[in-house]
Write a structure and sequence with these properties.
Strand content: 15-25%
Distance between the termini: 55 Å
CATH class of the largest domain: Alpha Beta
CATH architecture of the largest domain: Alpha-Beta Complex
Number of strands: 9
Structural class: alpha/beta
Largest sheet: 9 strands, mixed
Order of helices and strands: EHEHEHEEHEHEHEHHEHHH
Oligomer: single chain
Number of helices: 11
Number of domains: 2
Length: 279
């Protein structure tokens, strides 16, 4: 069974185009779970109209009674899926027709628990663009074809947008159990996938990723680091807490190395290390 988890919030401008691209895949999906986070526009009306007109019984729409926010809303949507494979989708992108087919072939490789892909950036009008936006370094340097990503790499940073993900029900089930909202959902899923098995990056542009003024989370125009707060606010880094939570349900390879690596990234420890051991 193939599921798609979608979250919406004031997405009326693009949601129908996205739903059509999901419904028209060369390999059909079995369910599309949409959780709306208290939209104030006609997003919910448009979705219901689309379901009625297209007789699209694969779509299950849930409307929150109160606003949950981006991360918790995706948790709710993912939790309501039933598939063996779960795809994530934003409300404003466009999938190319063979996205599901291509990603399922990769998911069938031995040990793969989660896969993500490259993407093409489009603007509000659907025109291709990349001017002024930073593509993640991992994607810029990725070789052609399929790359495998280990947990140590993911401890340092995420590698791709969550809207390109496909993962197994095993990843979903651990994600549901740990219920941790201090780290964005897509990075959590990547780390869980790496703990359970293999993480794959497919260097093919399988979605059109839309950049516009109302993106909840996405690429930002190039800016300086001015105004970012680098103070340590937690006794334990959030990523270390996440690893501990995962470890309660499944062994984590290189657990202690990952913990040490992450502590070494804290500004104060990094500064001390450079002072005594660096140049």
């Amino acid at each position: 069974m193939i599921s798609v988890a979608v979250t919406t919030y004031n997405g009326s401008k693009y949601i129908i185009e996205q739903l059509k691209s999901i419904c028209d895949q060369t390999v059909p999906v079995d369910e599309i779970v949409i959780v709306d986070d208290c939209s104030t526009d006609d997003t919910v009306l448009q979705i219901n109209t689309y379901i009625s007109q297209q007789k699209e019984n694969r779509i299950k729409l849930y409307v929150n009674k109160s606003n949950l926010g981006y991360t918790m809303n995706f948790y709710k949507a993912i939790s309501k899926t039933h598939g063996d494979y779960i795809f994530l989708s934003d409300q404003d992108d466009v999938w190319i027709p063979n996205k599901v087919a291509r990603m399922l072939k990769v998911m069938a490789l031995p040990g793969v628990q989660i896969a993500c892909s490259n993407f093409e950036i489009i603007d509000e009008s659907g025109n291709f663009t990349n001017k002024g936006y930073r593509i993640p370094e991992f994607i810029q340097k990725a070789p052609k074809g399929i790359s495998y990503v280990d947990i140590k790499t993911l401890m340092l940073d995420n590698i791709a947008q969550g809207c390109t993900y496909c993962f197994t029900s095993q990843v979903r089930d651990i994600y549901k159990k740990i219920r941790y909202f201090e780290i964005i959902h897509d990075h959590q899923l990547m780390v869980i996938g790496a703990a359970l098995g293999k993480v794959c990056f497919i260097n093919e542009k399988l979605i059109h990723y839309r950049i516009h003024s109302s993106n909840a989370i996405g690429f930002t125009e190039k800016k300086q680091l001015r105004g970012i707060d680098f103070r340590i606010r937690h006794k334990e880094p959030r990523m270390v807490t996440l690893l501990k939570k995962i470890r309660k349900h499944h062994p984590v390879n290189d657990y202690y190395l990952c913990v040490v690596m992450h502590y070494m990234r804290l500004p104060i420890i990094n500064a001390v290390f450079k002072r005594f051991f660096g140049k």
